[in-house]
Design brief:
This protein is an alpha+beta fold. The chain is 24% helix and 24% strand. The chain starts with a strand and ends with a helix.
């Protein structure tokens, strides 16, 4: 599995993950302004008719590009179950147990049936048992508690969550200072995640 390349805008804000072939296209168009990090891949191109030398480009872990990103860039990340479960570290925020994503569901802390909104700040990952137990009740009505408060990840956090299995150390080092002060800075175990 190929490592992804982190694309930034020229101001250094994280924009998206790129496949190495997409990064070559950006270099070919001359829109890469600067780069950081170690080499992700060496790409070999064609041979020169004059010298016979083969072109080679070293692709770094992070590239900053000029121009607009069409279609995929969002300042506020879309709320998806995959993103939600990753944000909550695949744990039920009621019982604290870890689950596969197929065993988790989206729970609205303030139920939609009572006017709650479907937004990051009102949803948590919940195992199906806890979600069913809670139903459309308020936590205070059931003596249930949240193990952590829901929050909306910023763009850098969302990119890290969505590529966590393949993120490189140099990419994480770049993204981490951009994380919200309320979000976890490192992946945590069950024992340390809710100790604060």
């Amino acid at each position: 599995m190929d490592a992804r390349i982190l694309r930034l805008n020229m101001a250094g804000q994280a924009v998206q993950w790129l496949h190495w072939k997409e990064a070559i296209g950006l270099y070919a168009r001359g829109v890469v302004g600067w780069s950081l990090g170690g080499e992700v891949r060496k790409a070999h191109g064609g041979r020169s008719r004059l010298t016979g030398a083969q072109s080679v480009i070293s692709l770094p872990a992070i590239v900053a590009c000029e121009g607009r990103v069409l279609g995929r860039f969002r300042v506020n990340p879309a709320l998806t179950n995959l993103g939600l479960f990753a944000r909550d570290n695949y744990q039920c925020l009621y019982c604290g147990e870890s689950f596969e994503s197929s065993q988790l569901s989206r729970d609205h802390v303030f139920p939609r049936s009572r006017g709650g909104l479907d937004k990051w700040e009102n949803v948590v990952a919940a195992c199906k048992r806890c979600n069913q137990r809670k139903g459309d009740a308020l936590l205070s009505e059931l003596s249930m508690e949240l193990l952590a408060l829901p929050y909306r990840p910023n763009r850098a956090e969302y990119l890290a969550l969505m590529n966590n299995a393949r993120i490189r150390g140099d990419q994480m080092e770049y993204l981490r200072p951009q994380f919200c002060r309320y979000s976890p800075k490192e992946p945590q175990t069950n024992a340390t995640r809710y100790a604060h």
